[in-house]
Amino acid sequence: MTVLVTGGAGYIGSHTCVELLEAGKDVLVLDNFSNSSAEPLKRVEALTGQPVRLIEGDIRDRALLDKVFSDENIESVVHFAGLKAVGESTEIPLDYFENNVAGSLTLLQAMKAAGVFQFVFSSSATVYGDPHTVPIQESFPLQVTNPYGRTKLMVEDICRDLAASDERWSIALLRYFNPAGAHPSGRIGEQPNGIPNNLVPYITQVAIGQRDKLSVFGDDYNTPDGTGVRDYLHVVDLAVGHLKALEKVAKKTGCIAYNLGTGQGYSVLDMVKAFEKASGKDVPYQITPRRPGDIACCYADPAFAESEIGWKAEKGLDEMMADSWRWQSQNPNGFEN
Ligand code: NAD
Ligand code: WQD
Question: Do residues 141 and 100 touch, judged by C-beta distance below 8 A?
Answer without folding.
Answer: no
